[in-house]
UniProtKB/TrEMBL annotation:
It catalyses: 2 alpha,alpha'-trehalose 6-mycolate = alpha,alpha'-trehalose 6,6'-bismycolate + alpha,alpha-trehalose; an acyl-CoA + a 1,2-diacyl-sn-glycerol = a triacyl-sn-glycerol + CoA. Pfam families: Esterase. This is Acyl-CoA:diacylglycerol acyltransferase. GO terms for molecular function: diacylglycerol O-acyltransferase activity; trehalose O-mycolyltransferase activity. It comes from Streptomyces coeruleorubidus.
Length: 326
């Protein structure tokens, strides 16, 4: 493992900024008009690692797929330094829209939760939209997350080939899209309020609004949803569902509307907008005979209190796939 500089002083929490961004994104959804992998075989090289705590560090990864360096936050096993001969499974946790790779450590107790569980937790960047895909003529976050980061972890942090992936919102999309488009790359995949059918009625408008919120042209993701329908289908977890056969799956989604916390209606409204997408995805898995644990519940909101609960519910499945204690 590379030498680490001393732990820096703690920064200001981004919770308020993240909530404001989420609200603005939903406002854009209802009020705003509407690549190929590059050098996939090249091994990413870590430019710098910054220690944040005894087990937690940020690594800057030079990426050919992105054309720049991008961060990944790591939580190492408790015995990492004491057992230099050992390799470890990796749990990838993906962030949502208008957030960043720090969200899982900011919003959850993932550091304390994984203490003593003998795994690496990797939280890679997915850009400001949080959509970890191959952008049309732009960055390739899929290759970054599925190829480059694992190559780095295997080389510098003794990661084994055993992996599981989970994500919230657009990160939930990423978890299922990565597992479906790269069969066998992950032993398990979990989505918490993910966008699981990108061509379902109303969902292209949601994707366009997420992109527009970051001042990017809507077509810069996959092109026009009708004129470039084949591309949209190629990156659609529901359309690629056959690739999920043999992967342990967990899918959770609330019906929203009346959900949310603190009287804020926006999380419930957004959750309800994604409800049909999750139902369609779960129905496709059932028709294909692909086993999955589904929790489609009444109410709820597009927010961390629900996602933390669902992560805990999915943990036994993830732990079994990774071969670590529950």
């Amino acid at each position: 493992m590379p030498d680490l500089p001393p732990k820096p002083a703690a920064g200001v929490s981004r919770r308020t900024v993240a909530r404001a961004s989420a609200a603005a994104g939903l406002a854009a959804l209802f009020g705003t008009a509407g690549g190929t992998a590059r050098a996939a075989g090249r091994t990413a090289r870590a430019a710098a690692a910054t220690r944040l705590g005894p087990r937690t560090l940020d690594v800057s990864v030079p990426s050919a797929a992105l054309g720049r360096s991008a961060p990944v936050r790591l939580i190492l096993p408790s015995d990492f330094g004491a057992r230099p001969e050992r390799t470890y499974p990796v749990l990838y946790l993906l962030h949502g829209a208008h957030d960043d790779y720090t969200s899982w450590t900011r919003e959850t107790d993932i550091e304390a939760f994984t203490e003593g569980r003998d795994l690496i937790v990797a939280m890679p960047d997915a850009g400001p939209t949080g959509i970890p895909s191959v952008w049309r003529g732009g960055p390739d976050y899929e290759t970054f997350q599925v190829k480059e980061v694992p190559a780095l972890l295997a080389r510098d942090y003794r990661a084994s080939g055993v992996r599981a992936v989970a994500g919230v919102s657009t990160g939930g999309y990423g978890a299922m899209a990565h597992a479906a488009r790269h069969p066998g790359a992950f032993k398990a995949a979990a989505s918490y309020s993910g966008i699981l059918d990108t061509t379902a009625p109303g969902v292209p408008a949601i994707m366009d609004a997420i992109v527009a919120r970051e001042n990017l042209p809507a077509a810069s993701l996959w092109g026009h949803p009708l004129l470039n329908l084949l591309t949209w289908r190629d990156f659609n977890p529901r359309a690629r569902a056959t690739g999920l056969r043999g992967t342990a799956l967990y899918v959770s989604q609330g019906s929203g509307v009346g959900g949310g916390n603190g009287g804020d209606p926006l999380p419930g409204v957004l959750e309800s907008a994604l409800w049909p997408s999750a139902q369609g995805f779960a129905g496709t898995l059932a028709r294909l005979g692909i086993r999955a644990t589904t929790h489609l519940y009444s109410g709820g909101g597009h927010d961390w209190p629900y996602w933390k609960r669902e992560f805990t519910a999915s943990w036994p499945m993830l732990a079994h796939a990774l071969g670590v204690p529950e």
